[in-house]
């Protein structure tokens, strides 16, 4: 029977590898080399979002970091505060609320699905809380109305 490896480097307590790794001796103790970590992390993420049980804080952190989002950005996307998201991630054994759980699963699924537009959408959604809601002007262009872009508004005010 081959040796299994408890993959704690993932930040998750329940991930074990049966193969795809080698353990070797270093001057500082045992070292581990894992083959195709990007593929492994993608497989772990897909597994997490497919399970029919709620995500816990450690799993939220794993998915967030795989999407390369900050706590602030993910919090903005799912409609939570950065402090709330930080608390969810810190409480590793606690489950996050259902709406946030489902939205995070959908975002991650789209992210790994290869949709190149999802990254732009995530960035745009993360910027929503950073935008000020000022006046918006529309101008009639032939038979259509169009919003004026910020530089055009500034030119009109000058």
TrEMBL record:
<feature type="domain" description="HTH cro/C1-type">
    <location>
        <begin position="60"/>
        <end position="107"/>
    </location>
</feature>
<dbReference type="InterPro" id="IPR010982">
    <property type="entry name" value="Lambda_DNA-bd_dom_sf"/>
</dbReference>
<dbReference type="InterPro" id="IPR001387">
    <property type="entry name" value="Cro/C1-type_HTH"/>
</dbReference>
<keyword id="KW-0238">DNA-binding</keyword>
<protein>
    <submittedName>
        <fullName>DNA-binding transcriptional regulator YiaG</fullName>
    </submittedName>
</protein>
<dbReference type="GO" id="GO:0003677">
    <property type="term" value="F:DNA binding"/>
</dbReference>
């Amino acid at each position: 029977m081959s040796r299994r490896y408890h993959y704690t480097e993932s930040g998750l307590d329940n991930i074990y590898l049966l193969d795809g790794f080698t353990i070797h001796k270093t001057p500082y103790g045992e070292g581990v080399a894992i083959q195709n970590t990007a593929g492994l992390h993608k497989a772990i993420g897909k597994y997490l979002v497919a399970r029919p049980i709620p995500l816990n804080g450690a799993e939220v952190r794993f998915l967030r970091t795989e999407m390369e989002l900050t706590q602030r950005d993910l919090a903005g996307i799912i409609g939570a505060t950065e402090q709330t998201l930080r608390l969810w991630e810190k409480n590793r054994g606690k489950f996050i609320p259902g709406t946030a759980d489902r939205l995070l699963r959908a975002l991650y699924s789209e992210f790994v699905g290869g949709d190149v537009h999802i990254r732009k959408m995530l960035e745009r959604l993360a910027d929503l809380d950073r935008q000020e809601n000022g006046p918006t002007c529309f101008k009639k262009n032939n038979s259509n109305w169009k919003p004026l872009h910020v530089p055009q508004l500034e030119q009109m005010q000058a």
